[in-house]
Amino acid sequence: MDVTWLSDPSAWLGLLTLIILEVVLGVDNLIFIAILADKLPPDQRDRARILGLSFALVMRLILLASISWLVTLTTPLFHILGQPFSGRDLIMLGGGIFLLFKATTELHERLEGVDEVKSNNQKVYAAFATIVTQIVVLDAVFSIDSVITAIGMAEHLPVMMTAVVIAMILMIAASKPLTTFVNAHPTVVMLCLGFLLMIGFSLVAEGFGYHIPKGYLYAAIGFSVLIEAFNQVSQANRTRHLHGNQSLRERTANTVLSLLGTRLTAVSSNEDHSKIEDNIDEETEEAFAHNERAMIHSVLTLAERPIRVIATPRADLHRLDLSQSNEAQRKTLRDSPYSRLIVIRDGSIDEPLGIVARKDLLAQLLDGGELDIHAALRQPLVLPETVTVLKALESFRTHAADMAFVVDEFGSLEGIVTQKDLMEAIAGEFPEEHERDGLASIVSRADGSYDVEGSMELVTLEQYLTLGSFDDEDFHTVAGLLMDYLERIPREGDEIIIGDWKLQVTLQKGNRTERVLISPLADAEVTTG
Question: Which of residues 284, 300, 316 is at a domain's end?
Fold first, then answer.
């Protein structure tokens, strides 16, 4: 074997140049393989990709070893209307038509969405042998062009083979990340299919004897790639900017909800809401109703919401005072609509004695005994007010509890949480019979305004309208938002402006904000509170 070329600097320069050219010429081959491999089941894609490129390597080495036969491919075989056609021309013509056909059908499938699905809504994948056959046919076309380029660039057969082997190894290494990137970006797929149309047209033109300089094609492709790169960077920066103030959990929630057809968390005020609504998939909108999406949104925020915001505040608790007379205690038990009451002594609710269930007291009376509240007294679960709803849910499950006291850092009672409260934190309000005559927690009006409870959580309100992002604030309710903006206890008639909305206190009982009217700013008179 002649190895004198190893000491020839021009041979090494030719090797480097040829490797670069072979990689450049193989990029379009890689793009088409990436698109074809996506038609296979995920567990077969890597095997088809590597198998196809391996076939290409073997084919190119065989062609290089048959240089004498390749030379005959440029000899005219016949003439049509004075136009000579050689073996190479026929291969270029057939390969170009194949590329034009496949690129056009791929564009049609991706734009028209005609992917086949089974009766169980599973995607139908292409057969492994079919995809590999298409890859081999494509490799044959590009192999001829690649080998002819190698023959024209180098004089030594070992240089040609070495360049082809190194270039193919680089292509195999780059094929998986390139495939992942291409299939993850629909605009890149469209751009790649456009490249294949250009290449197919150039091959057809060459088959008819019209040579199109490769520099023109690759200049156009390079310019398009540069513009798409700028587009991807711009999109990434925009996404990072919009999500810059959101936590990882919130971004995850937004992603899940967007897959279900909408985004229920705060949207930037300068975003085009109509454009967002237009992008909602109608079938997904029908499959996932508003209450289902709201429930998913609530579940995804359980780990951020403190339990105090879902607790029944101490002012609303029905209590049984042991210091009262027996008759007063019986009247309290008879009049209370709740099945369990807080037991206190001397009117002090800061440190309750426990809870009592009315059914336990009824059992005492039915057994012929006297009313003994001490014997029926139970100790509920005790949770700090800062614990999250998710952790509280786990504590309820671990201790098999049905009620918990919520206490502050000094141990004073702030409210109670029941299993019903935890369920409402996920699925929305479940009004009891004695509560059905009152107003709902949120009432939508015909003029676009909302009449809401002051105790409504902001995370629940976001399912209906967008006031802004308050994740880093200490308040979690509409009343807390008003108090923070006013820097005092709200009074009936107070108004504040937040974004495109006006909030007006319509009912205030002492220090407690009962109802708030939230009106669109365009329809509201701008006044100061």
Answer: 300
